[in-house]
Amino acid sequence: MTPGLYLKRLFDITCSLLALIALSLPMLFIALAVKFTSAGPVLYWSDRVGYNNVIFKMPKFRTMLTGTPAVATHLLDDPDRWLTPIGKFLRKSSLDELPQLFSIVTGEMSIVGPRPALFNQNDLIELRTAKGVHLLTPGLTGLAQISGRDDLPIPVKVDFDEYYLRNRTFFLDIQIVVMTFVRVLKTEGVKH
């Protein structure tokens, strides 16, 4: 492991463990809210594409009704009808992503990297593989996330992912984390 990757991993573990401790009570309240506002499990385990295109199970607080097709939200005929009563709020605030802190601790994800594709997003997976992006550990946030998120077409997302691949530094990661907080507070780029 290179010194840069070692520092990144140390940063990931330290920050995610601290965040899990600090957010344990809010996460408990979110879990209870999910449980009491819709039928089904608290967590949704999504099959996602990880490092070197290996599939892993990524946890999220469940924001969709049980039985929702396992496709990207924008591909649903009427995404809003599939949302739970608190699903839209959890997605807009990105609070549904908090369980992914556990995936960062285990090393399946990083704090910063390309967002993990759904297992069936073949167009995104193929483009990332062609540009070498599949060799990055997927992230809780990334350059595409702070640059438009759901508003970006897939080729543009992959261009941001490739830029990150070619120019990643610890300083860039810190910039992306700071900008993520700004975007989350403004709820920018989230359609559903």
Give the SSE map:
Layout: H1 3-22, H2 24-37, E1 43-49, E2 55-61, H3 79-82, H4 87-92, H5 100-106, E3 110-112, H6 122-130, E4 139-141, H7 143-146, H8 154-167, H9 170-186
Parallel strand pairs: 3-4
Antiparallel strand pairs: 1-2
Helix pairs in contact: 1-5, 6-8
In short:
The protein has 192 residues and is mainly alpha-helical. It contains nine helices and four strands, in the order H-H-E-E-H-H-H-E-H-E-H-H-H.
Total tally of structural domains: 1
Radius of gyration: 16 Å
> Which runs of at least 5 residues are low in confidence (pLDDT < 50)?
none
Number of strands: 4
Classify the oligomer.
Answer: single chain
What integer is the average pLDDT?
92
| Order of secondary-structure elements | HHEEHHHEHEHHH
Largest sheet: 2 strands, antiparallel
Structural class: mainly alpha
**Terminus-to-terminus distance:** 38 Å
% residues in beta strands: 5-15%
Helix content: 40-55%
The backbone outline, from C-alpha atoms, is globular
- The number of helical runs is 9
- Major sheet: arrangement of strands: 1-2
Task: Describe what you observe in this structure.
The protein has one domain. It is built from nine helices and four strands, in the order H-H-E-E-H-H-H-E-H-E-H-H-H. The strands form two sheets. It has a two-stranded antiparallel sheet. It has a two-stranded parallel ribbon with strand order 3-4. The protein is mainly α. Strand 3, helix 6 and strand 4 form a beta-alpha-beta unit. It is 49% helix and 10% strand. Helix 1 runs antiparallel to helix 5 and helix 6 packs parallel to helix 8.
